[in-house]
Specification:
The chain contains 12 helices and 9 strands. By secondary structure, the protein is an alpha/beta fold. It has an 8-stranded parallel beta barrel, surrounded by 7 helices.
């Protein structure tokens, strides 16, 4: 069986505000916890009216306080925006409040545009120090030494597990070098997926945290009772990616009956290239698609983003996916050895 996890951007729907979006995220977290999902992660984005997870560590605390067993984490914290000490204190606090349940996924991108990056007071060259900042975080989460001048309090001794996230081969090299689990953003940037996973496995060095490589691609999955209904729900995500090409990032929009009336042929090619790792359909269709994806990638875990406008339909999709997950089988180790 392949573990399933959830990535939630805490979307703000058209006609609503974050006041409604945040309780919906907690409701989804409670449901997927009951259905056996491994993790529930939220992502850092700034200055985007359709995403309510900008204060990521605060949202994680809210979700952790309303759940019992599921792991909560960041998918991810954009490390160039922050001091490693501040992140160690935030996630050390979370780990102290909810021991054994907190993950820290780290990204190298700013998660926003240049103007907003300046408003965050992030240094333009901060991303160049990504490996050094990772090493600093490992040090701050480790057991403190008697003569250690700078400590994360809370944080020292919590050993919060780190994940490296990426959408290119660079992140795979960093994850392999540090011996950390690796999450690839194939839900919006699938082009380098196969190359990144190959490099990660070939270059992986075991660490205290991880003895063998662990790859978790993030994908889009929308499941409904029929292929036709799933395709209609999918138009919400297709509109979003079309709007991104138009440099418009607004609220989450409801599905439409005919997506062909929304995008131009060029926009369709662009959006569907980015959505190559979107698996949409009935349970039977999605199970076959996911099993083929696992055979292709050798994924150790799947992180799923399900952007569906209607909350009940979103819950239904994740419930159907939980049943599908029971039927998914890992790729054979012998096949992986030649990947």
């Amino acid at each position: 069986m392949i573990p399933l996890s959830v990535l939630d951007l805490v979307p703000v729907r058209m006609g609503e505000t974050p006041v409604q979006a945040l309780p919906r995220a907690l409701d989804l977290a409670r449901h997927v916890e009951r259905w056996g999902y491994q993790r529930y992660w939220v992502a850092e984005h700034h200055n985007m009216v359709g995403i309510a997870s900008s204060a990521t560590s605060v949202v994680i605390g809210y979700l952790a306080g309303g759940t019992s067993t599921i792991r909560l984490g960041s998918g991810g914290i954009m490390l160039p925006n922050h001091s490693p000490l501040v992140i160690a204190e935030q996630f050390g606090t979370l780990a102290s409040l909810y021991p054994g349940r907190i993950d820290l996924g780290l990204g190298r991108a700013p998660g926003t545009d240049q103007a907003t990056m300046r408003a965050l007071r992030a240094h333009p060259q901060a991303a160049e120090h990504f490996p050094d900042d990772i090493q600093a975080l490992r040090f701050l989460f480790d057991d403190a030494q008697p003569d250690q001048g700078i400590r994360a309090v809370p944080g020292a001794g919590t050993h919060v597990p780190l994940w490296i996230l990426g959408s290119s081969t660079y992140g795979s090299q960093v994850a392999a070098h540090f011996g950390l689990p690796y999450g690839f953003a194939s839900h919006f940037a699938p082009a380098d997926l196969d190359a990144a996973l190959r490099i990660y496995r070939q270059q992986f060095k075991p660490s205290e945290q991880l003895a063998r490589s662990h790859a978790m691609p993030c994908i889009n999955v929308i499941v409904a009772d029929t292929d036709r209904e799933a395709a209609r729900l999918f138009t919400t995500l297709q509109q979003r990616f079309t709007d991104m090409a138009r440099n418009r990032r607004g609220l989450m929009t409801p599905p439409i009956d005919d997506i062909e009336t929304y995008w131009s042929p060029a926009e369709k090619v662009h959006a569907m290239r980015m959505l190559e790792c979107a698996f949409v359909g009935s349970p039977e269709s999605v199970r076959a698609q996911l099993q083929a994806f696992i055979e292709r990638t050798g994924a150790d875990e799947l992180m799923v983003s399900g952007s569906i406008f209607d909350h009940d339909a979103r819950l239904h999709s994740y419930e159907l996916l939980a049943d599908i997950g029971q039927q998914l089988e890992p790729r054979r180790t012998a096949a992986l050895a030649t990947a």
